[in-house]
Amino acid sequence: MTTHIHKEGYSILSVLFFVLLGIVLVSWLILPNWLTLLLASLSLLLFFFIMRFFRVPQRYFQPNKHAVFSPADGTIVAIEEVEETEYFGTRCIQVSIFMSIWNVHINWFPVSGTVTYFKYHPGDYLVAWHPKSSSHNERTSVAVARPDGVHIFMRQIAGAMARRIVCYAEVGKAVEQCSELGFIKFGSRVDVFLPLNANIKVKLGQKVTGNVTVLAEV
Questions:
Q1: Alpha-carbon distance 92 to 156, whole Å?
Q2: Which is catalytic among the residues 27, 96, 141, 188?
């Protein structure tokens, strides 16, 4: 399995590289050699940690028109029946995935279809596992209608550290299952809202892998 760096990380990594390089060069001029070496080592570790955050894993999946794949890597923190008022306007099943800073932070479309809804909501930055983060935090809302008429609704939610959500969804655009939906930087959460007749395939606390784990079948 190979990886490369996501395009959303190019500018951040470039700026970070030159900032850290400048710090090390200045320290080389004014600090003892051992301290400069320590600072250089810590700078290198920080750079590779941030670079790892923007990794893009190479994954292969089997398309399944009835499956709703996980749109993110992370941990299942909620599976519950809720009243969804923004898009469905009815009760549905909410499955929430928390992404820590150790997870891949790309988001993918869990189904193929046409984007029928997109909205950006400014908001707060509560910790992503907080129940109110779904409605209070900065977030984007996206709905996709499958060819068979089933609608899947999702929210990308910023967390306490995540201060930028990137979403590539456009209303009216056809999307493929497991193609990129967007990217959330530095810790976040994704909520998926499913019809009540969905056959849930995951459980609370389960680790899930984007484009690999099936959340449900509808």
A1: 18
A2: 188
